Amino acid sequence: MGASRRQICVILSDASPSMEEGNKATEALAGRTALAGVLAHPDNRDAFDVIHIGFGATARVLVAKKAVTKLKPSELDCAIGRFGGRTNIVQALTVAGEVLDRAAREPGVWARPVCVLFTDGNANEGGDPGPAADALKAVATIVCAGFGADADIAMLKRIATSPDMTLACPDGVALRRFFEVVGRSMSQAAATGRPAAALLGDALLKG
Questions:
Q1: Is 200 part of any domain?
Q2: Per residue in 142-154, pLDDT tens?
């Protein structure tokens, strides 16, 4: 029997050209795959859908809303550079809001969605992401990761639902741990009926 409430996890993946440096793209894919694996665990009773959005200068939906248990690993890949050479976080947040607005019209009982955004840089296209983040926070919980030394952690803390829902990830190991913690927190929220936002901040601080 499925869960009484379903929940959407929106993954917003930085696919700007800087993600081609070193093993960043491979490490990011490993992190997304780890998150999907946690959410797809049988104990979660098929409670989660995933939406995957890639962004650079523009943003595009790579995976429309799909049950995580039916997600193929290849669907979490993200061709670096296909979205242009800048980092437009405003556009990423706006597209996330649009897809969640459409999803909210579907029948069923839905928990508050969780948007997981990571970037290895700063918002250098599209202007201040604050207003777009505020609009998205009205309908979803936002958690962020800054990947590598060049990530603008202060900006990400302003985007996130609360500053403690942002984690600095210096390397791929830390980024994978971030994704796993998000997945475990969402799973715990689904099992207990508590809001994911009530669990994510403490979980990220503890690692």
A1: yes
A2: 999 999 999 999 9
Mean pLDDT of 164-188: 95
- 130-160 burial: b if 16+ Cβ within 10 Å, else e: eebbeebbeebbbbbbbbbeebbbebbbbbb
Average confidence (pLDDT) over 40-56: 95
Give the pLDDT of residue 107.
80
Number of domains in the chain: 1
Least confident interval from 2-11, 21-30, 186-195: 2-11
Q: Could you tell me the CATH number of the domain that includes residue 163?
A: 3.40.50.410
146: in domain: yes
What domain range includes position 73? Answer: 7-206
Assess if residue 22 is contained within a domain: yes
Contacts of 91 (CB under 8 A, 6+ apart): 55, 57, 58, 59, 125, 126
158 lies in a domain?
Answer: yes
The pLDDT mean for the chain works out to 92
